[in-house]
Structure formats: C-alpha cells, structure tokens
Write a structure and sequence with these properties.
heterotrimer, A: mainly alpha, Four Helix Bundle (Hemerythrin (Met), subunit A), B: mainly alpha, two-stranded antiparallel sheet, 26 helices
Chain lengths: ~180, ~625, ~110
C-alpha cells in the first residue's frame, strides 16, 4: 500500500509539472486531469473513498469539462500554441521557482519538527461523512448553497454578450 | 477722593471698550461724546484728586492703591497697583487735561472722515489709558505694559489712514525703531529682576544704593539699557528717525502722542529710575551729551523743512533733547517743568498746524501758504503765542522760564559744564530761527491759496485754552532773581531730589538770562530779515546739497539703510535656501520618492500581485516559526 | 495502510508550490486559472490527510466545501475570461493592466 502511495504521488507531481510547463492548453488540461486522478488514488489509500469518488466526478468530471468547453470556445488550438510560445519562455521560471522553493523549504522545516501522529489509517465510510455533514456542518451547507447560487447567477450575467448601456443621465446627450 | 485713582485709568479703557462694541452702529455724535467724555471725565477727576493731594498731603507721601495681584510666579510677584506721587500727578494732569482738549479738537477735526471716526477715538482712548498706566505703575512690568501699549497705539494711529501704503510704512518704521529701544529696556528689566528679585519700583530704588556701588559696571549696564528704551521712545539720537515719518498720521495724533505724551515717556522713565542713574554717573553724562547733540542735529534739520508738520516734529526732538540735558545734569524738576510747558505749547502748535492744514485742503507745504494772519485770526494769535513760548521769548512766555532754567542748570549744576550750556544756547538760536521762519512763511506774505473755511468752534476752544497755559504756565516757577517762586520744584522735590548747584548767585543767573534773551530775539530778527513778506515760489524752491542733507534729517535713514538694512536683506536673500529649508524640502522629496517607488507596485499586472502575495506568505511563515 | 502523515502533508505542500510556480510564471489567463485549481486541490489533500490522521470525517467535509467553492469560482472565472477575451482578443493578462498608477501621473 505504501508503494502505491509513492507511485501515485510521483505521477501527480510529474503531471502537474508538465502541466505548468506546457504550451498547448488542451494538453495542459489533460495533464491536470491526470494529476487529479492520481490525487484521487491517494485519497483512496488514505481511507476516504467518498471524497475520492467526489474528486473524480466533480473536479475532474465537471470543472475540467468546463475548462475544455471554454478553451474550445476561445479557439485556442494551433494558433494558441504560437501565442503561447511568445507569452511563455523558460527563463521566466527562475524567479518564481526560487520563491516557491523557499516556501517549500519552510514548510518542510516545519514538518520536520512536528511530532508524529499514529500512522494507521482506518477507512472512513461515506455515511460517517454524511452524518457529520448534516448535523455539525449544516450551516456551512447552506452557505455553500448561497455560494453556488450566486456563482450561477454571476456566471450567467457575466457571460452575456453585452450591449453597452449608458446611465439614463448620459443617454440624453449625444455621446 | 483718592480712592478714585483707578477710575482715571479705567475711564479711557471703558470708553474704548464701549466704542469697540457700539461704535460702528451708533451715530457720530454719540461716538464723539463717549470718546471725548471719557477722557474729560478722567481729567476732571485728576484735577479734583490733585487738589486733594496737594492740600491734604503737605509732605507728599505717595498714595498707593492696590487693585489686584497680577501674577505670583516663582518668586516674581507683581500687582496691578498705582502709585501716585508728585511726579506722576504732574504727568497725569498733563496727559488727561491736554488729552481731553485734543479729543475735543479731534471730534471736529475728524468729523468729515468717511469711515473710521469711532476707530480713531477707540485708539486715542486706548492710548490715554496705556499712558496713564505707564506713569502710574508701581512696578516695572506694569510700566512696560503701558510702554508697549503706547507703542501699539502709536502704530495704530500713525497708520490710521491705512489705505495709503506709505502711512503703513511710517507706522511700521515707528514701531520697529522704538522696538529696538524696548528690547534693550527689557534686558535691563531682566538684570533688575535677577539682582533685586522684585520689580517693584520703590523697593528697587530703596535697595539700589546698598546693592550696587557708584560707578560699578552692572549699574552702568542697567542704566544704559534703560536709557536705550528711553532713547527709542523719546526719539533721541540714534533712534530718532521714526518721528518725522510719524507725521503721516492725523494732526491730533501728532499733538497728543508725538509732542506731549508718548515721547516724554522716556523722560518719565529716567526721572523715575533716577537712583539707578545716579549710581552710574557715566550714564548720566551720556544722557546729557545725547540730549545736547540731538537738539543741535534736530534744530538744523528743522531749519530746512518745508512741510509744516515736519518742522514741528524736528522741533519736538530738539526740545526733548533739552529735557535730556536737564536729566543728565540732575535737574529733575527742571526737566519735568519743561515737559509740562512743552506739552502745552507743542500740542498747541500741532493743533494750530492741523487747523491750517484742514482749511487749506490738506496742504502741508508752508511755501504754498501765506497771508493767513488776517483770514484765520484766532489760529494765528494762538499759534504766535505758542511759537513765542517755543522760542522762549523773555518774560512773557512760559517757555522762557522753563528753558532758561535748564540752560542755567546746565551750566551751574555739579554735573553740568559750559559746553552743555553753549549747546543749549546755540539750540535756542536755531529754535528761534526755524520757529519764526515757519510763522512768517505760513502766516505772512502774499496769499497763494485761500482757506476754504474757518476752523470750527471745537477746534478753536482748545487752541485758546492751550495758549493761555502757554502764556501763564510758567509763572509757577520763577527764577531766583525774579521773585524766586518755586511752586513746581517744591512740589516735585517731594519725590525727587533737588539738583546740586555748583555755582549760584543771582547776578550770574541774570547775566545768563540776558544772554539767552538776546540770542532768542536775535534769532527772531534774523528770521524776520530773511523770511518776512518775501516772495517764495514753491515750484522754484531749490535746496543746495548741504540744505538737502539737513532736510533729510542728516541722512540717518540712508546711514541705517546702508549699515543695517542692506546687509540683512543680502543675507536673507543668499540664505533663502538654507539648510533648514532644505531639511523641509528634503522631507517632501523623500515622500515623493517613496510615492514613486510604491506606485511602481501598482502596475496592474496580475502575476505581480500574485508574486507579492507569495512572498508575503513566506515572510509571515518565517516570522511565525523562526523568530 | 500506514503512511507517515508528514509525507502526506509533504505531498500537498509540493503540489501547492508547483501550482504557485505555475501561477506566477504563466501569462495566459487560462493557465493561471488551472494553476489555481492545482493549489486548491493541494489544500484539499492536506485536509484529507489531517482528517484521516485524526480518524474523523471532518477533513472530508472540508474537502467537499472546497470542491463547492472551486466549482463556483471556476464558473465565474471562466465567464470573466470569456468577457476578457472578447474585449482584448487575447488571453494575455498584461493587456488588462490599465489599473496601474504610473500612467495616471503626469508630473510629480
């Protein structure tokens, strides 16, 4: 089992790295989906089958599909690759890598000095999650519902092909 | 009656306060009534109080009225208290009485002013109030309050017609030049306080002889510092340049402030602090020398003026020089006597000149006037009486008695010398010359301009009263060989010491009087030859170089400009961006630099912001876990 | 199933940092959004590891909420990207930098 964990994490990291370096948007998206699937395997190993399934269904299945639709709508195909080559060169990687490495080293250092918890993971079935969700975190569910409905309305309005509407005071003048 | 002393001071201030609140809204008659009435009431109370003081108090014990405690700070304890003795009684009599007459005169003089009628009386009343505080003060700080107050009112009144910037400059010049004197006086007050730990005049004068030795350095320093203040206020050399320019103010102002009262504040100060000056004989000699030189310088300058008020201004400087000579030889009562008589005739001269200027449509140039003796009879006769008093024509004028006493004591006092007497004599000759030059040119000869009207009744009444005093005022103090009436000097000597006479003798005194009389009459005769009924064309009035030098008052203005003003302006100009300025501008430039730097972080690029957030996260983690 | 908790968190940290690099490096708005998704996913992974370590379901609950939030964010974000693309005709974020200070100052 432990081996599986390391393999899955290895693939996740490689896929993510290839995603951020790539130039083709669709390819990068596919790498991202690969990364998400690897993380889902990790979830299974950790004993959280519910969220593993959720990761695949919602994250890789809905959100990434949204991405694919938008990329296809924007027509970022072959011309997009040319544009990417202008926009992205490998030299730019140096600075942000240093920043991220600094962050990473800090986090590693912190992790080293923590006391270790017991390492056996038991499986947490979905009904335990359900029980918790609808008793302790019921208000957070409502909040998430708010968030989702505002997201829907916002996305609808923002996606409109807008015509420019002047304020009624400005309409009287010939602008 | 004595308890009403505070009322004398309070009435002018009350008048000023009422006029400040109600002056703009009330009719002119009411403002005039309040303005003149307050000072007149104060004058009446003064006279009653004086009569009471003189009759009930033969030994002249001073009357002290404590009003309230002013401050009590770390050893400095001062009261608002008034001290009435014979010297201050003489002064307040002159101030209130002559002041009341001048207020009455100015009610009619300023009647035609478009605006500022009430403002004039406010300032005049304030001035009278402060001057009364000055002479009645029982401690030096209260005196200094009055000193500064009269300086302020003088500034306000000289620049009364403020719409003309030249008047503002004149007022500023007066204030600044007297300020130099005030500054030295303040240092003198500091020395006095640190030595005596009190500023009460009586205590200082009582303790001075035992604290300071005669001729010691510190006594000399203090005396010279106080003398600096007196020189500034009394317009003696070297601080006399402000007085001729102060003639920019209305004539009643010149009459009140610059002839009778404020310029004599220096005389009062020296007389009051006479113990200090007696402890520093060098300072006293300096007073006499300054007086002698000033009276000659001012006399020569007066001889070359063509503005009637400037002649009188230089004449004032010259006459105060006489008072300084008297103070310098220790003749305290003679100085105060001449102060009183001078107040009468000089204010009369100014008021008469003001009347002439008023009816001649604001014409100041004497050479454009003429033939007024028939057209303005009252003005002419009063002016003539005053001019005779100024010239000290023998026997008939008050000026003769007072000036003659000074001349005699300048010679005969134990601190006097023959040089002082000769200077005074030369000054008397010059005085006679310029005075009657002024009279002849203004009132005689062919009329070049007709007066537009006659002066009103309220202008002529004060003129008449003052002329009576200029004539008869001298009879209270007759010299030894003419009856030896010593009413005034006895009165003054209740407070001040008598002068020590080195030489006495009626015969010598008579010789001196005859010489002085001859000199005065000779001056009048010379003026008659040169200026009586002669044709003067004002357009062609040329002055050669020497005359112009005297006209400018021996060009002290130019000297001060070159020595003091030009270097200061030069230094100010090159120091415009000094290091203090640069400190402040560098603050501004530093802020601007920071702004430029910080605004570069707002470049609108999304990744830049994300980078900033990431770095921020690293920094915070570092701080939390490592520090 | 015994995996050291530290290594689980370490995996999450590594993924997060990679996502951060992607966010800082790319100029293309779509890639930036994808990098943000990676970062969110990594944060969720950390929650799950912690929840399993304690044996409680709270970690999974948190992950569900992160998922909901990510969904809402992606939808709105993609709509904005569409608008931006229509305005600028390109997906370069540097085009959308008119809210800067430098251009507005004429003299200082």
């Amino acid at each position: 089992m432990t081996i599986l964990f390391y393999i899955a994490s290895f693939f996740a990291i490689i896929a993510t790295i290839k995603m951020i370096i790539g130039t083709n948007a669709i390819h990068a998206l596919l790498y991202l989906i690969t990364s998400l699937l690897s993380v889902s395997v990790v979830f299974f190993i950790l004993g959280a089958p519910f969220v593993a399934a959720l990761e695949v269904i919602i994250y890789a299945g809905a959100i990434m599909v949204l991405f694919v639709f938008v990329i296809m709508m924007l027509n970022l195909g072959k011309e997009g690759v040319k544009e990417e080559h202008e926009l992205f060169n490998k030299k730019v990687l140096i600075g942000p890598s240093i920043i991220s490495l600094a962050l990473l080293f800090e986090m590693i250092y912190i992790l080293m000095h923590q006391s270790m918890l017991p390492v056996t993971f038991n499986e947490i079935p979905p009904d335990a999650v359900g029980k918790l969700l609808f008793t302790k975190y019921i208000l957070v569910i409502e909040l998430a519902a708010f968030l989702l409905i505002s997201g829907i309305i916002g996305a609808y309005h923002l996606g409109e092909k807008g015509k420019v509407v002047h304020h009624r005071f400005l309409q009287k003048e010939n602008l | 009656m004595k308890d009403l002393l505070w009322l004398i001071v309070a009435l002018p201030f009350a008048g000023a306060l009422i006029l400040t609140i109600f002056g703009k809204r009330s009719p002119r008659l009411v403002s005039a009534f309040i303005g003149v009435g307050s000072v007149s009431l104060a004058a009446i109370i003064t006279i009653l109080l004086g009569i009471g003081f003189m009759s009930h108090n033969p030994t002249g014990i001073p009357y002290h009225q404590l009003l309230w405690q002013w401050m009590d700070v770390d050893g400095l304890s001062l009261n608002i208290a008034f001290n009435l003795d014979s010297v201050s009684l003489t002064f307040i009599f002159v101030i209130t009485f002559v002041g009341a007459l001048i207020h009455l005169y100015s009610a009619q003089f300023m009647w035609k002013e478009e605006e500022g009628f009430a403002r004039f009386f406010i300032f005049m009343n304030l001035f009278i109030g402060f001057m009364l505080i000055l002479v009645l003060a029982d401690n030096m700080l209260l005196l200094y309050l009055g000193w500064e107050g009269v300086g302020l009112c003088s500034y306000l009144l000289i620049g009364f017609w403020y719409k003309d910037p030249a008047n503002g400059y004149a007022a500023r010049k007066a204030f600044i030049v007297t300020r130099i004197g005030d500054f030295t006086m303040a240092i003198g007050l500091f020395i006095l306080f640190t030595t005596y730990h009190t500023l009460n005049i009586k205590d200082i004068l009582a303790a001075a002889p035992s604290t300071w030795a005669v001729g010691s350095g510190i006594a000399l320093t203090t005396a010279l510092l106080l003398l600096g203040g007196a020189i500034g206020k009394s317009a003696q050399l070297p601080l006399q340049t402000w007085l001729p320019d102060a003639m920019a103010g209305p004539s009643p102002v010149s009459a009140l402030i610059h002839s009778a009262t404020m310029v004599t504040a220096g005389v009062y100060l020296i007389a009051r602090m006479h113990v200090l000056f007696e402890l520093a004989p060098i300072a006293q000699h300096i007073i006499a020398i300054i007086g002698a030189i000033t009276l000659l310088v001012a006399g020569m300058a007066a001889l070359n003026q063509y503005d009637i008020k400037k002649v009188l201004a230089y004449s004032t400087i010259s006459q105060i020089g006489y008072m300084f000579v008297a103070l310098g030889v220790g003749a305290w009562s003679a100085a105060i006597f001449h102060f009183m008589i001078h107040a009468f005739f000089k204010s009369l001269l100014f008021l008469g000149a003001g009347a002439v200027i008023l009816v001649m449509n604001d014409e100041h140039n004497m050479f454009k006037m003429g033939g007024l003796w028939k057209k303005l009879p009252v003005t002419f006769w009063t002016f003539l009486i005053a001019a005779s008093s100024l010239t000290a024509l023998p026997l008939l004028t008050a000026g003769f008695y007072s000036k003659d006493k000074i001349l005699w004591l300048a010679y005969s006092s134990d601190k006097g010398s023959v040089w002082l007497w000769l200077a005074g004599l030369a000054g008397a000759f010059i005085t006679a010359l310029y005075t009657f030059r002024m009279v002849f040119i203004t009132f005689f000869g062919k009329a070049k301009m007709e007066p537009t009207s006659r002066p009103g009744i309220f202008i002529t009444i004060p003129l008449i009263i003052l002329s009576i005093l200029s004539f008869a005022g001298g009879f209270i103090e007759l010299p030894g060989d003419m009856g030896h009436v010593t009413l005034l000097s006895d009165f003054i000597q209740k407070t001040m010491p008598a002068v020590m006479v080195q030489q006495s003798g009626y015969r010598i005194e008579l010789i001196f009087q005859v010489i002085a009389a001859i000199v005065a009459i000779g001056g009048v005769w010379l003026a008659y030859i040169f200026y009586f009924n002669k044709q003067f064309d004002p357009a062609e009035l040329k002055q050669n170089g020497l005359q112009r030098f005297f006209y400018k008052g021996w060009d002290f203005d130019l000297l001060y400009d070159k020595v003091f003003v030009t270097p200061m302006v030069f230094l100010a100009r090159i120091n415009k961006n000094d290091f203090i300025d640069q400190f402040y501008t560098s603050l501004a430039s530093f802020t601007r630099l920071l702004h430029k730097g910080l605004s570069a972080t707002q470049n609108g690029k999304l990744r830049w912001y994300a980078t900033a957030i990431a770095i921020g996260a690293i920094v915070i983690l570092t701080i939390i876990f490592y520090l | 199933m015994n995996i050291p908790v530290n290594q689980g968190i370490l995996l999450a940290a590594i993924l997060f940092c990679i996502g951060l690099v992607g966010l800082l490096v790319r100029r293309d708005i779509i890639f930036m959004l994808m990098s943000v998704e990676v970062m969110l996913n990594a944060a969720g992974l950390a929650f799950i590891v912690a929840g399993s370590a304690w044996g409680q379901a709270d970690g999974q609950v948190m992950f569900i909420f992160i998922l909901a939030m990510a969904a809402a964010e992606v939808s709105v974000g993609l709509a904005l990207i569409i608008q931006m693309f229509m305005k600028f005709k390109s997906v370069d974020t540097n085009m959308a930098s008119t809210m800067n200070e430098q251009k507005k100052i004429s003299n200082t």
